[in-house]
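Dear colleagues,

As part of the handover before I leave the project, I'm documenting each prediction I ran so the next person doesn't have to rerun anything. This entry is a single chain, and its sequence is reproduced below.
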Amino acid sequence: MDVSPRSRYKYLLSLPERVIRSLGALSGGLLTKLESMIRSVLAMVAGIAALTVTSFAIEALADPLLMRMFPQALPTRAAVGQNLVALVLTIPCAWGACRCRQN
């Protein structure tokens, strides 16, 4: 197969345009991937923030109630924070509250 000099010349002249188009397509694909990755990271940060706020809200409501119900075992807020039973009760409540907000 013989290629004429004229067709080689046209090929060489079109090379910069094809390189620019290819780079544009590659960068568009990378931007799409980067956008979805940033969106995922932001969703994770938002979830952690919602869980933290919900946990603090539940503790703010549950701590005085637990201190009133069990005054000898939980005389102060520090005692509530160090009590394993109180911790075991508040973590599932916070997780359940966040799960309800997602649905």
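The chain has one domain: 5-102. The longest helix spans residues 5-69.

All the best with the project,
I.
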